[in-house]
Each structure stands twice: as C-alpha cells, then as structure tokens.
C-alpha cells in the first residue's frame, strides 16, 4: 500500500487536514446521537420540545405491548423485504458483472437512478401503479385475467413492493464491488469439472461471497427498517412501522422524548439483528 | 442444464429492470393526462403539467430550495470526504482510520434515527428550521458516498506512480496536484453527484430539520399527497427520475462507471 515512505516527515499536515472532517463528524453526527440518548430520558414539554431531567417514563411508554407489536411488525416487514432483495440481487448482480463493462453501464445508470429516487416519489409511484384508475390491475383486466380493476394500495403487499423497490438498487450496489472482483476462473474451473452454471453459482459463487452477502444484507435491513414514507403512504395502520410512530411522536404530537426513546428501541433492535446477520455470514470461508 | 441457466439469465436481466421501471412508466403516463385525472394509459396527451411545475411558484420555489440545498450539501460532503480520505490514505495517523469509520457510519443507521438526531441537535443549538441546518446535516449524512468513492479511487492508484514522482523530486503538494488529483478527480465528481442527487431526493432529514420553514420538493410532494393526487406530482416525480438518469448517464459517459462503483480490486 502507498503509505508514506519511511523517514518522510508528515509534520502538522495530517492534523490540519483532519480538523474540519473531525469537527464536522463529531458535532453533526456523534453529538446528535448522544443528545438523542439524553433526550430519551428528558421530560416532555409542549412549549420547548423537552425539559431536561431524568425520567424512565419514556421507555416505559416505548415498551408497551402496542409499541412492541409495532416493533415486531417493523422487524418482520424489513426482514422479509431484505430477504427478497438479497435473493434477487445476488444472482442479478452476478449476471450483471459477467457482462462486458460497456454493457453494464445502462443497467448501472438505472440502478443508481432508482436508488436515488426519493422515497416520496417511490411511494407515490407505487400507489399509482397499484391504484384502480391507473394501476396494473387494468392491464390484467385487458389481458382477461381479471374481471374488473381493483386497488391494492394501501396494504401489506403495497408496503412490501415499495420496500423492495427502494432497497433492491442498494442491495445491488453494495454487492457490486465484491461480486465484480470475483475471479472468473473459479467458476470456469467448476465448469471444467462438470458443474452446470447453476450448480457452480450455488456451490462456488455464493459460498465465496458469503461474508459480503451477509454484510450487504445487514445494511439493507437497517435501511429498510428506518424507512418512514413507504409504510406511512402505502400501508394501512396495521403496517405502520416504528419510524412512522417515531416521526408521529416527534413532530406531530410534540413528544420528542418519547420519539427519542422509541428511536433507541429501534436502534437496539436493528443493531442486534444486524449483528446476527453478520455473524451468520461467518468468517472468510475457504473452498474445499 | 445449460439451457436452464441461459433462460434464467434472460429472465433476471429482463425482470429486474422491468420491476424498477414499471412505476416510472406509470408516473410518466399519468403526467401526460390532458385533464386533472390520474388515468393510465393517459387520456389525451399534454405537457401542461410540466409547464405548471415550472411556472407555478408553489412548485418551482421548493424546486429551487432543493437545488440550492443539494448543491451546498454536496460541497459540504466533499469538503469532509476529500481531506479525510486523503489523510487516511497518505499518513499513518491512527485517528484518521477511526474518522473514516465514523464517516461511513451514517449509512449503518436507520435513516429515521439520523433525522431525529439532527432534529435534536438543531433544537439544542437553537437553529431549528434554519436553512443551513439541513445543508450541514445532509452534508454529513451523505459524506459517506464521496468518502467511499474517493477512498476507492486512492486504493486503485498505483503506488509506483506516486513513488516515481517522489523519487524524481516532486514535493508533496506537487505530487498531489499532478499525480493524485488527476487520478481521483472522476471519483470526486462521482461522489459529489451521488451526494447531490441523494440530497435532492432526501425526505426525512429535510422534514425534521426545516420541514416547516424551507419546503424542499420531496417535502412539498409528501404534503400534497394528503390533499389528493394531481398529474403535476407525477410530472415532478418523472423529472426527478430524469435528472438522476441524465446526471448518472453523464458520469457513465465521461467516466468508467463500473470502475467508479468498485469493480476493480485495490492495488
């Protein structure tokens, strides 16, 4: 690696360079998280967002059966959406990276464009796609598969489709570097030894990428779990996830301390699940 | 068996883009309706809703807000990512590595939590609702992207190149200007583009920091969803997609997109 050569003096340069990044990250990223922890113990105040103090009431309210059920719904929906994303993205990314680089570009542009698409736009577009007047059900009617057009949004399927839509491009992009760097010779060797492409994919490609897949899965899961607009817009109250209630408390019900406590519960749950996923990926596996 | 693999490949390479494009096709269709209806396929063809977006200040003002915020947020993101990635790569400073980890961390948090943290911070600093609050919060949140691309760029820089320049007597500043910067420039531009486009589209942080003072376009669309849908919202949504395709298309045209996204192994 190109670290500085021995004997070269770096002097004050690195510290000068790092002053602004360090200050920005500390003040704008670390402090807010710390402050949020503090606020989760504060008392509610309608006049000034919160009143400094130390009460556990917010956590008592955050852990009521109602909120725990919301947490369960959030985790379940996020896990299901993540699972679908990974099951689609792993083979897709593999096939994509086996194309010549030039032919990959249009796919990558599409993936980047949908990745960056606002969650608001995604929610709006899917609510149209699943609506009665402009939705796919009209296509099914035209094809003779259905009697009359219906609306599928809001509902469970709408939320799931929306989640997969916003998370699939992220999954593909996270998997792209490790899958691209995968040595083609490995697969060819499997082929020479008589494995079909499908079998080579299952027995060579997936095991080699196990750790990368687990890492990407954890990040995608966290991303889906933290989404607000999709469940709020495409879901019925039964599918409203914890972020919907966090935002609701923090902004509309002026109960920032409870919002912060709920956020801590969400953070704790997401960290545990993410760590489990990474652990399932295990250590680097060598080929037998 | 080989037949099955070929067939599967075709299905995947067709169905995934189709799934990603289906909602886009519908918003495009709905945006072309002649009257204020949400039919797909559209009834009559008209670009009136695109015109409304550009001439109605209720829509164009949030668009301008979003563009200005995204531009400055992108610059903030680069201002953090570039010195950080460079210092971590160039110097053996222990806390630089730590800071890189910190810079990559925002993407390992549920978005709603980052947004709530920003809300609490700006309330404490008595700057809740101030325009610069969203610029700085976006900048730090999105710095992950240029940090990732620039780090990648530095990793793919051949060490011999830097070594050669130094051996031939080039000073640190000259090496940076003549060897390192030209190599990482596309990665910086790509990182800025990612941050810019994502800031333009970001909803929850913008809503929690300046939702009631500076309306960004995603916030405006979301607020309007409650009062009923209009084809103008479909027009704007399609424009969002178009802007992203054009910008990333340019990046892909000028630079080597697979490389910028990490297709090459580090040197």
What tags apply to this protein structure?
heterodimer, A: 288 residues, mainly alpha, MetI-like fold, two-stranded antiparallel sheet, 13 helices, 2 strands, B: 267 residues, 0% strand, globular
Task: Describe it.
- The complex is a heterodimer of chains A (288) and B (267).
- Chain A has 288 residues and is an all-alpha fold.
- Chain A has a domain of 189 residues: MetI-like (MetI-like fold, Orthogonal Bundle), CATH 1.10.3720.
- In chain A, 71% of the residues lie in helices and 2% in strands.
- In chain A, strand 1 and strand 2 form a beta hairpin.
- In chain A, helix 4 packs antiparallel against helix 7, helix 7 packs antiparallel against helix 10 and helix 8 packs across helix 9.
- The two termini of chain A are 30 Å apart.
- The N terminus of chain A is likely disordered.
- By secondary structure, chain B is an all-alpha fold.
- Chain B contains 13 helices and no strands.
- Classes of the chains: A mainly alpha (288), B mainly alpha (267).
- At the A-B interface, helix 1, helix 3, helix 4, helix 5 and helix 7 of A face helix 1, helix 3, helix 4, helix 5 and helix 6 of B.
Q: What topology does this entry show?
A:
The complex is a heterodimer of chains A (288) and B (267).
Chain A: H1 13-39, E1 43-45, E2 49-51, H2 57-62, H3 65-97, H4 101-116, H5 119-129, H6 136-142, H7 156-180, H8 184-192, H9 197-208, H10 210-225, H11 229-234, H12 242-252, H13 256-281
Antiparallel strand pairs in A: 1-2
Chain B: H1 2-31, H2 48-55, H3 57-90, H4 94-104, H5 111-124, H6 131-142, H7 144-155, H8 159-167, H9 172-201, H10 204-210, H11 217-225, H12 231-254, H13 257-260
Helix pairs in contact in B: 1-12, 2-3, 2-12, 3-4, 3-6, 3-7, 3-9, 3-11, 5-6, 5-10, 6-10, 7-9, 8-9, 9-12
Low-confidence spans of chain A: pLDDT under 50, at least 5 residues? 1-8
* Rg over alpha carbons of chain B: 22 Å
What is the overall silhouette of chain A? globular
Strand order of the largest sheet of chain A: 1-2
Number of strands of chain A: 2
SSE order of chain A in H/E notation?
HEEHHHHHHHHHHHH
Radius of gyration of chain A: 24 Å
Q: Name the structural class of chain A.
A: mainly alpha
Strand residues, percent of chain A: under 5%
């Amino acid at each position: 690696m190109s670290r500085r050569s021995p004997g070269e003096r770096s002097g004050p340069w690195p510290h000068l360079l790092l002053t602004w990044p360090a200050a920005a990250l500390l003040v704008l990223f670390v402090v807010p998280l710390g402050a949020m922890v503090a606020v989760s113990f504060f008392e509610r105040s309608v006049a000034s967002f919160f009143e400094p103090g130390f009460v556990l009431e917010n956590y008592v309210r955050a852990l009521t059966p109602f909120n725990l059920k919301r947490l369960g719904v959030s985790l379940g929906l996020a896990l299901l959406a993540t699972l679908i994303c990974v099951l689609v993205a792993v083979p897709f990314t593999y096939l994509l990276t086996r194309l010549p680089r030039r032919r990959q570009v249009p796919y990558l542009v599409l993936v980047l464009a949908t990745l960056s698409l606002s969650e608001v736009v995604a929610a709006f577009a899917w609510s149209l796609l699943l609506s009665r007047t402009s939705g796919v059900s009209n296509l099914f009617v035209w094809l003779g598969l259905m009697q009359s057009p219906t609306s599928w949004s809001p509902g469970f399927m709408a939320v799931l489709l929306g989640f997969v839509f916003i998370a699939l491009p992220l999954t593909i992009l996270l998997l792209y570097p490790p899958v691209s760097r995968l040595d083609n010779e490995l697969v060819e060797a499997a082929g020479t030894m008589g494995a079909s492409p499908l079998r080579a994919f299952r027995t060579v490609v997936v095991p080699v990428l196990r750790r990368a897949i687990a890492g990407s899965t954890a990040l995608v899961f966290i991303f889906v779990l933290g989404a607000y607009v999709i469940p709020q817009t495409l879901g019925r109250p039964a599918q409203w996830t914890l972020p919907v209630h966090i935002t609701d408390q923090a902004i509309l019900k002026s109960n920032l301390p409870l919002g912060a406590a709920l956020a801590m519960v969400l953070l704790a749950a997401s960290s545990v699940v993410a760590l489990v996923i990474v652990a399932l990926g295990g250590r680097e596996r060598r080929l037998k | 068996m080989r037949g099955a693999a070929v067939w599967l490949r075709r299905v995947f390479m067709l169905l995934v883009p189709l799934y990603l494009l289906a909602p886009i096709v519908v918003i495009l269709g709905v945006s072309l309706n002649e009257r204020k209806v949400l039919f797909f396929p559209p009834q009559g063809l008209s670009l009136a809703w695109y015109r409304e977006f550009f001439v109605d200040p209720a829509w164009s003002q949030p668009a301008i807000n979003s563009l200005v915020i995204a531009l400055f947020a992108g610059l903030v993101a680069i201002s953090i990512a570039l010195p950080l990635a460079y210092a971590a790569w160039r110097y053996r400073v222990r806390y630089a590595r730590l800071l890189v980890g910190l810079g990559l961390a925002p993407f390992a948090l549920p978005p709603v939590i980052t947004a709530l943290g920003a809300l609490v911070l700006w309330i404490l600093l008595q700057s809740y609702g101030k325009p610069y609050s969203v610029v700085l919060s976006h900048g730090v949140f999105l710095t992950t992207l240029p940090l990732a691309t620039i780090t990648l760029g530095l990793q793919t820089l051949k060490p011999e190149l830097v070594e050669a320049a130094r051996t031939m007597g080039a000073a640190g500043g000259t090496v940076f200007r003549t060897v390192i910067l030209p190599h990482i420039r596309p990665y910086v531009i790509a990182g800025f583009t990612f941050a810019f486009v994502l800031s333009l589209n970001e909803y929850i942080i913008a809503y929690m920091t300046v939702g009631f003072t500076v309306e960004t376009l995603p916030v405006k669309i979301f607020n309007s969803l409650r009062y009923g849908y209009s084809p103008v919202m479909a027009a704007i949504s399609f424009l969002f997609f178009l802007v992203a395709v054009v910008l990333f298309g340019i990046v892909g045209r000028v630079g080597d997109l697979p490389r910028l996204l990490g297709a090459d192994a580090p040197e």
